[in-house]
């Protein structure tokens, strides 16, 4: 298909004119624009609910794990301060990992499949938030660890 060092264009012949014409090549559609940082972090944006839910899920599991391993309630874990650097590091890591796809324009629903849907993640995040509050409230009222 090469003539004289150049690629030969495909041609089509119409009935009205017997002159060959180059075939039209479809142009690729441009990718959708990436959302702005302010749109992602808006009150109704994509990031706040997802990031808070993910952090709550990790926090709830971590709080229960520390209670089981060390026997400290949530308030003792917070006042102790030994887990603060780990908490901050985990928060930053999860926030950045959540933001990168959102800022690139990848929709959460496009990655949903089977039982791992975006709605299930939101519900799990809400339940983890409620679980943390209920855990702290129960330990405050009873004055001892839950587990």
TrEMBL record:
<protein>
    <submittedName>
        <fullName>Putative chlorophyll A-B binding protein</fullName>
    </submittedName>
</protein>
<feature type="compositionally biased region" description="Pro residues">
    <location>
        <begin position="23"/>
        <end position="35"/>
    </location>
</feature>
<feature type="transmembrane region" description="Helical">
    <location>
        <begin position="84"/>
        <end position="103"/>
    </location>
</feature>
<feature type="compositionally biased region" description="Polar residues">
    <location>
        <begin position="1"/>
        <end position="22"/>
    </location>
</feature>
<dbReference type="GO" id="GO:0009507">
    <property type="term" value="C:chloroplast"/>
</dbReference>
<feature type="region of interest" description="Disordered">
    <location>
        <begin position="1"/>
        <end position="35"/>
    </location>
</feature>
<dbReference type="GO" id="GO:0016020">
    <property type="term" value="C:membrane"/>
</dbReference>
<keyword id="KW-0812">Transmembrane</keyword>
<keyword id="KW-0472">Membrane</keyword>
<keyword id="KW-1133">Transmembrane helix</keyword>
<feature type="transmembrane region" description="Helical">
    <location>
        <begin position="123"/>
        <end position="142"/>
    </location>
</feature>
């Amino acid at each position: 298909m090469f003539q004289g060092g150049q690629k030969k264009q495909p041609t089509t012949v119409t009935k009205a004119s017997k002159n060959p014409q180059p075939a039209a090549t479809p142009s690729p559609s441009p990718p959708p624009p990436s959302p702005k940082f302010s749109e992602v972090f808006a009150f109704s944006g994509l990031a706040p609910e997802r990031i808070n839910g993910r952090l709550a899920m990790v926090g709830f599991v971590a709080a229960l794990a520390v209670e089981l391993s060390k026997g400290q309630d949530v308030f003792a874990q917070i006042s102790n301060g030994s887990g603060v650097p780990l908490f901050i590091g985990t928060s930053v890591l999860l926030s950045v990992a959540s933001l990168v796809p959102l800022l690139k324009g990848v929709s959460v629903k496009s990655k949903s499949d089977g039982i791992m849907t975006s709605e299930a993640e939101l519900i799990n995040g809400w339940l983890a938030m409620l679980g943390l509050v209920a855990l702290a409230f129960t330990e405050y009222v009873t004055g001892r660890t839950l587990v």
